[in-house]
Design brief:
The protein is globular. It is built from six helices and six strands; from the N terminus they run βαβααβαββαβα. The longest helix has 16 residues. The model has no long low-confidence stretch (mean pLDDT 96). Helix 1 packs parallel to helix 6 and helix 3 packs across helix 4. By secondary structure, the chain is an alpha/beta fold. Strands 2-1-3-4-5-6 form a six-stranded parallel beta sheet, with helices on both faces. The two termini are 16 Å apart. 37% of the residues lie in helices and 17% in strands.
């Protein structure tokens, strides 16, 4: 019997086998959650739409997957960077039990500013993120009283994959 379903969304120009979402999948599996890692690489390649591909189509793909999963039980959305952004926005449209956001962009071009359902939320961000200023994420997390972990790293969180996985484990155990 599954505790629920985790949808783990990779960042831009990454993939479903990326290090961070793979680490999260291992945590979900160990704790009795089913999980999936959608592949958005086809949409990331659509540079004619924007410099970060087709973000709206990425969001719609996640909403469809999450809507289907929510009919079977609790859903947790997790992602890194662009994957975190679409996870947060999707939570506004799909019943979501929790959110786990790694280095989330607070703005995304013409898309709405980062927003999310008022559900248990954990954020991991890097002090030295070269793409998304830490101050923006701190302010966003503070406004919603989200759990926030700031680490001495850059945008890819290369040195904090295991720390991120432990933070995800804490979120799942708290639900």
């Amino acid at each position: 019997m599954s505790r629920g379903h985790c949808i783990l969304s990779h960042g831009f120009e990454s993939g479903p086998d990326a290090t961070k979402v793979t680490a999260l999948a291992e945590v979900a599996q160990r704790l009795g959650w089913t999980h999936e890692r959608p592949d958005y690489t086809d949409l990331d390649a659509m540079r004619a739409v924007s410099s970060v591909g087709d973000v709206r189509a990425r969001l719609q793909r996640l909403i469809a997957l999450a809507t289907d999963a929510a009919q079977r039980g609790p859903v947790v959305l997790a992602g890194s960077s662009l994957g975190a952004y679409i996870s947060a926005i999707a939570s506004l449209q799909v019943p979501t039990r929790g959110l786990f956001l790694m280095v989330p962009p607070t703005t995304m071009g013409p898309m709405p500013a980062l927003d999310a359902a008022r559900v248990p939320t954990s954020v991991v961000h890097a002090w030295h993120d070269e793409l998304i200023p830490a101050a923006q994420v701190i302010a966003w997390a503070q406004a919603r009283s989200a759990r926030l972990l700031l680490v001495d790293d850059g945008h890819r969180l290369n040195n904090h994959v295991e720390v991120s996985a432990r933070a995800f484990e804490e979120l799942l155990l708290s639900l």
